[in-house]
Structure formats: C-alpha cells, structure tokens
Amino acid sequence: MFNKGDKVSVLDEAMNGVVLSVKDTQVTIETEDGFMMTFYVKELLKVNDSSNLMESIKRINVSEVTKEKEIPKTRNFVKEKKSKNEIPAPEFDLHIEKLVPNKRGMSNYDILTLQTETAKRHIEFAIRNRIPKIVFIHGVGEGVLKAELDFLLGRYDNIAFQEGNYQKYGQGATEVFIKQSAM
Predict the structure, then answer these.
(1) Domain assignment present for 54
(2) What does pTM read for this prediction?
(3) Which residues pair with 136 in a beta bridge?
C-alpha cells in the first residue's frame, strides 16, 4: 500500500511526512520537521502529490472559461399554466397548530391520528364533490405524517398523488389527483 518516497499524512494528528521504509504493518516516515517516526499502516493516509494538481490546472483552457462566463445563460422558470376560469386546487394544512387551538395534553399518537383523520375527511369530501385535485401541506419534519399520508392515499384506487410543486410549497406538500368516474 505504501512505497518508499510516498507522501503521507498522519490520521488524528497534524503531521505530514515521506515514507522511508515499510515493514509488515509498520511504516517509518520522516516528518516535515526532520524527525523519524514509526506508525501502523492504518494510522497513515497517502497524500496526492501537489505537482499533479498543478498539471491539472495547466490543462484548463482559460479562454473557454472566460467565453463561457461572458455569454449570459437564459433562465427557465416553469410556470404553472392556468386558464382564466380554472379554480385553484384547495389546500389543506395538516400542521397540528392549524387543526386545534391548543395541542397541550395530546400525545404524538393523538396528533398523528387527528392529522390522518382530517386528511381522510378532506379526501372523502373531494371524491363526493368531484373535486379533481387537492393539496395537503404536511411539512418536512421527520416524515412520519408524509408516510402516513402516502399509506392512506395508497388505499384508494381512484387516487394518484405526487410531491407538491417545489416552487410553491417546497418539499412539504403532496398533490392529490382524484380520477372521476362517469356517473
């Protein structure tokens, strides 16, 4: 693993050196300060030669980089297309602070049960009233509510769901699409 002349760094210590000899699992190095020290192989880390770094830098074509910086890049923003008569999808915030005036005395189980029951009630309402799309805002957190929501939504045959629009909601929302059957 180590050869005579390799540049090494000592793990857990601010010390560098050059390998002088290798015997079994022990490596003798000369530190930058001129001291001879012996370490186990597992205590050393091979350091890449900085001359290789200089060679890499020399290969960079500076004129291409400056030309690339001069050309302004067009920025693409994906904008949701909305027709004038389209009604925006109803959004339901499942954060416990939005559902009850005071959560004192509620266990985590009680909170999660209330949140999932609220989501289920909104889904059933949307199905009954033929609402094609709803959005649940659940936040990021540890992902427990999102996992429960995904499990709940997976139990419906006529529902598709996906992450909410990142630009609008960040990572803390789920869009639910309700496939309407002809009556």
Answers:
(1) no
(2) 0.53
(3) 92, 174
